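I would like you to sit down with the record closing this message with an eye to the fold:
=====
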Amino acid sequence: MLELRKKYKSGSALEILQDAILTGDVPENTTLTQNDIAQSLEISRMPVREALIVLEHQGLIERLPGQHVKTASLNDEYLRSIFADMSALEIEAVKVLPREKFCELSSCRGQMDFHRTLRKNINAPFRRKMLETITEIYLSFVLGRCDDSGKIDAVFVNLLGTMTTPKDIDVIRAGYAVYSEVLANELIRIRRRQKAHAELEAG
C-alpha cells in the first residue's frame, strides 16, 4: 500500500507524485488507481486526476484501462536517453543561434537559466515543449537532489566553454555528450540510493 503522506508532509499532489516516481519511492511499473493515490495522500480524487494528466505528458506514468495507471519504466537506458534527447534538442538550437545570443548564454546565472535561454530559441512548439519537460522536471530534479554538485558544475562550465563563435558543433556535441552522461548517472545514483534506503527501512 502507498504511504506517501507519511513521507511527504507538504506539496501538491503533482509535486509529491513527481518526486515519488523520480526517486523510486513508487517503483517503476507499479500499477495504481486514482483511489489508491487519493487515499495515500489523504485528499480527494480531483487533484489526483489533474496530477495524472500532467504526469502522463511528462512521461512519468502510462494510462491503463479503467482508472488505472502504471508508473513509467525509468530504467538506466531510458534515463540516459532522456538527457541525450535534451542534448540533441539544444544542439539544434545552438546551430541556429544568432551570434549576439552567445553573449546572453555566457552571462547566464546558472544551469536552469542557461537551458531556459536556449529553449526560447526553439521555434517548433512541440520540440520546445519536449525540452521544457526534460529540463523543468528531470534536470531540475537532479540539480535539486544531488549531494555534491561539483562534478555537474564542472562539466557544465566545460560545456559553456564550447559555446564560442564561430560555432564548432563537433566540439559542442562532445561537451553535451559528457554533460548529459553525468546528469543521467547522477539521477541513476539518486534512485539507487533511495532504493537501498527503502530496503534498509523495510528490513
User: Anything to note?
Assistant: The mean pLDDT is 90. The longest strand covers residues 68-71. The chain is about 70% helix and 5% strand.
